[in-house]
Structure formats: C-alpha cells, structure tokens
Amino acid sequence: MSGDCVKERTNTFTWENMKVERILTEEETRKLETIDVFTTTIEPKLANKFLKFIQNHIPKINDLEHVKRVRRSQTDDGNVNKGIELRVVLCPVDHISKEELIKSLESFDPAIIQHIQDNLAIYPVPKHSPYTMSQFNEWKSIWPISYKRPTTQDEELTGNDLEYIKKYMEIAENEARLAQESNNRKIGAVIVNPQDSKVAAIKGDMTHSLQHPLKHAIMNCIEAIAKDTAESYKTISSTSPNDSLHHKRKLDESGITSDAISAAEGGYLCQDMDVFTNSQPCVM
Amino acid sequence: MSTQEETQLTLPIDIKNDPEYNTHIKFMKEALNMAEEAYQEDEVPVGCVFVHNGEILCRGRNKTNETKNGTTHAELVAIDTILTNENISQRKYTPDVFKNSDLYVTVEPCIMCASALRQIGLEGVGRPDGRSPPVPITVGGYCHDEAIYMLRKFYVKENVNAPNPKKKANRILKTNDLVLEDSQD
C-alpha cells in the first residue's frame, strides 16, 4: 500500500479530546508573491494631472486593484532635496517594454519627461489582494495596498455547526469501528445532503472484506449514492414509457434535455454534499 | 515499461525506434476502441486496457453518466471487472495481478486514477501524450493524434449530460493538424 493512504489511527477517538478546526483556504494561507511594476516619481504639485494622464495613456492594470497607485515617502537626500517623494505605479513590466512606456509618457509634459525617465524604476508589489488581516499587515510593508474583508470569508464555527459535525462524526466513527471488526481498516464515512440533513450514505472501509485495495470508505459511499440515483432514474423512465433512456437524450425545444433537468433536480452526482470521515482522505 | 526507477520519464520520446512499437500500437488501438464505445454512449470518450503477460487482462471505459458515479473513470471500471464484488473467493486474479500489468489509456490519468494506480501497485502506464505525468513510469506518444481526435470529436458535439449543456452548433471538428491512419467517421 502506498503512502498516499492514511495509516490507521493509533489514538482512540473521543469527543473530549477532539477539537474542530476550520481548514484554511489557499487564499488564507498564501505567502507573499510579488509582481514587478514600472514606477516613477512625480512632483506633488503635478501629481493629480499626471495620474489623470497615465489613466488614459498607459494600459490598464488588471487584477492589481489592491495596489495603491501612489506611495508617499519622506526623502532625505543630504538635506538638499528634503521633502515628500511620490512614487507612482505605472504598469506591470510584462505589459509593455520600457521604450514603449517612455514613448507613451512623452506627450505628458516635455519639461519634466527627463525627470520621469531618470526616476523610472522597477519595484515589486504584492501580486494578490490580501485575504486576511495578517497578510495585509505583512504585505503592505513592501508597497501600500488596500484591504477589504472578503464577504465570503467564513465566520467561526458556531454551536449549531458543532452539533451538526458531532452528530455525523459519531456515525462515521461508529462505522469505522464496524469496519475494523471485519478486519478492514478503521475508517468510516458519512455523506450528508446539507439541504435537508438527510444521510445519503454510510459506509466503512472494505479493502479487506472485498479484497479490493480501492474500496475506501468514501469511495464506497459515492458508489452507494450512485446506485440509489441510478435506481431513481430507472423508476422515472419506467413510469413514463415515451421517455425511455434513449429518448431522454434528445434535445427539447428549449435546448435543455430532460436528462439535464432531472440531474438538476436530483443533484449532480454528489455536488454540494458534506462528507464526514475519521481519517484524512487519500489523493484518490 | 516496468523498471524499478521511480518517476522516470522516457522523454523526449523516440517511438519509431521502440522495438515494442507494434505491440504498444496494438494495445492503444484497443484502448481507443473502448473510448469509441464511450463516445457512442455520450460519455467523455476515455478508454483503457490493462495488459498482463502480453494479453489483455481487462478493459474499461468512462461510465460516469451511465452509473451516475463521477468516479467511474475508465481505469477504475477496468480494475473493477477483475476485482468484482461478487464471488470474491472465485475470482481468477488477486489484486497483485496489477503489479505485473501495464496500462494503455487514451488520456493522461487524472489525479484520482493516478493515485488508484499507485495503490494497486501498477508500475507502467502507456499514454498518448508526452507531458509530465502524475504516475510512476509512463511512455507516451503512441496513437497521439487518434487520441486527440477522439476528444475533439466529443467536445464539438453537445454534451447532454453536462450540468449546464452548451450550444455548440458553430463548432467545427478540426483535423487538418492531425495525422490519422484511417478516418473513423
């Protein structure tokens, strides 16, 4: 057996020693990635005019809405040019060549084009919009960015969620014990339709009892649900003789097949269902 | 195709000089026949054969629509024909048979099937394209154009089993960049 599969748990499961944690998404755990952009400096009194100009003359920046266009910093260049420096993001370096960029800036103000060219520099800025506050705090140190708390971000698990999880985890755990009694691995799974909280399948590992290395608990659940679904399809087609499986495939006037309609009604395979299992699923 | 070295790739492939070229083509054609069967049933056309001691051990083709089971990909269907759920004691082979078998499949195995193939101990996987695979040892390039043609002809027709079927009346089946031995349509 390969390392892909989780070995049997050694510690005994109890609700007292169990802690439910939400697994963080890729966005939430993402480390800082940067993208190189052309920047230049501009005198504060010309800043507004320059920003309007570049909006019309330089390719629009897509997917970098979180990056602030202007970075304001104190300069202290040997007390001669002491003051405020405004550094402006022009566009990502892979959008345009340096020569093209300079050319498109030329029509701005011939008097200061030399200044813009002299101060043209490539800076790294955060490539992705920060998803969490800690990402925001870390990433803003390389370039100013904005942070909007995502509306889809999950809240902490509530008491109702915990009750829901506990109920089905106990069933999965019990199924795991039954599997072990038949010399299978101690793994059980429950698939639940969260819409109506109905159990769609409860199955344990059967790799030993079926002498089949792929009969994992979750795969067995999926198979059981598929069999139920296929049965209900048969019932539908046998009750309407003009609607045999073959005829069902034909397109109706609206272009939607009756197959597609019934698939939508019965759920598409196991889409949107919840799985409870006592062991981390393997890659399969 | 069955060496002990892990994740070894025989790329870039030089299939013309392969002494087993004709054997691989023969079994790839069998896999393509299975894909054709899937195509005829409005399934995503993927087919495969497992070969043991130079003979076909089992065949499989995608059955996800027929079974309403999204995991019944060609490879898993083929494996289940050997490891049947009924009469386990009268099975002709144990799961170990796959350790000395080769797989010929018309598309690079998905990550689920790749993991399944590892778990049944398969060492060699033949595959029609030549890109980096998730499976231990692969040889690619055999029936390359036929395999591409199979998928193209599926994706120009409307997939009535898709969750949201798309109208594809304007799509044209492109074949001018493919070299096909005999036209199948």
TrEMBL record, chain A:
Q: For the CMP/dCMP-type deaminase domain, which residue ranges apply?
A: 165-234
The protein's matches in InterPro entries, at most eight in alphabetical order, are given as:
CMP_dCMP_dom, Cytidine_deaminase-like
Residues annotated as signal peptide: none
Q: Which GO terms describe its biological process?
A: nucleobase-containing compound metabolic process
Specify one Pfam family: dCMP_cyt_deam_1
Q: Which SUPFAM superfamilies match?
A: Cytidine deaminase-like
The GO molecular function terms of this record are:
catalytic activity
Instruction: Provide the protein name.
Output: tRNA-specific adenosine deaminase subunit tad3
| Protein source organism | Mycoemilia scoparia
Automatic annotation (TrEMBL), chain B:
- Any one biological process term the GO annotation gives: tRNA wobble adenosine to inosine editing
Q: Which SUPFAM superfamilies match?
A: Cytidine deaminase-like
S-adenosyl-L-methionine as a keyword of this entry, yes or no, is no
Which GO molecular function entries does the Swiss-Prot or TrEMBL record give?
A: tRNA-specific adenosine-34 deaminase activity; zinc ion binding
User: May I have one GO cellular component term?
Assistant: nucleus
Domain CMP/dCMP-type deaminase span(s) in chain numbering: 22-154
PROSITE patterns attached to this UniProt entry: CYT_DCMP_DEAMINASES_1, CYT_DCMP_DEAMINASES_2
Q: Which PANTHER family match?
A: CYTOSINE DEAMINASE FAMILY MEMBER, TRNA-SPECIFIC ADENOSINE DEAMINASE 2
CDD domains assigned = nucleoside_deaminase
- For this entry, the protein name equals tRNA(Adenine34) deaminase
Sorted alphabetically, which keywords does the UniProt record give? Hydrolase, Metal-binding, Zinc
**According to the lineage, what is the superkingdom?**
Eukaryota
